[in-house]
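quick one, 292 residues, struct below
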Amino acid sequence: MSARDPGAERSVVRSGLAVTAALCVVEAVGGWMTNSLALLSDAAHMLSDVGALGLTFFALLIGTRRASARNTYGYYRAEILAALVNGVVLWVVVFFIVREAWERLFAPPDVAGAGMMVVAFAGLLVNVFVARRLHGHAHNSLNLRGAYLHVIADLLGSVGAVLAGGVILTTGWTLADPLMSVAIAMLILFSSWRLVREAVDVLMEAVPAHVDLDELQRRLEAVPGTLEVHDLHVWSLTTGHCALSAHAVVEGGVAGDDVLAAMAGVCAEGFHIDHVTIQIERTSRRHAEPWH
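---
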């Protein structure tokens, strides 16, 4: 995982927000004028992306605030809360798209295929631009990863709308529009599921996916002078920032500072854990801990 550049991240999100908001308006107007549910559903997804990128930008700003006496870890979790809200809102969007598509399956309206294709193609170009901007930062932030997945789903949705417009234009089969809107909705659901799951994992302080807890414990207990490591907990503060707490039982003649330094090195180099708190014990207190 590369180092994060908050300034570059804010710049990428800001530009993506501007062009996505403009396209959202264009697709909504185009969908209304052409009577295309595929375009309207893609516009709804775009609207959720505008909210997602707005929340992402806000969370990036809040996340840079310093820690305080009340928020001793700072405001890192603002990013995770924003990601969770974004994912849940996407589920609501999926519900309304599928409901409208179901109604149109039984009463398909006339759809202007040519106009639908023009607007969808414009959306495709914008989504390619935004996706390329976000791609370089997508692996460094849960929020930006979520935004990137949203844009990819939008990109595929725009491809679907272009295809549906082509089918309607060449065959007159208007059912292609609601069927494609359902496909777009499933893409939205797929892209948001992982986002929500990862956000919930962070909020529940689950062990980060890249950390093998058993291997970490073995590596810590292999530090010279260490007899035992217990009450080991690892969790994420936010994307790219992991914390650890543990109790380490060391031999009587071993310097605790040396053990702490070696264990901090293991955590940082092998597991990308940058906030380490280890309590040194000369006698194990494993059974005295209320959590075990």
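The domain at 6-203 is CATH 1.20.1510.10 (Alpha-lytic protease prodomain-like).
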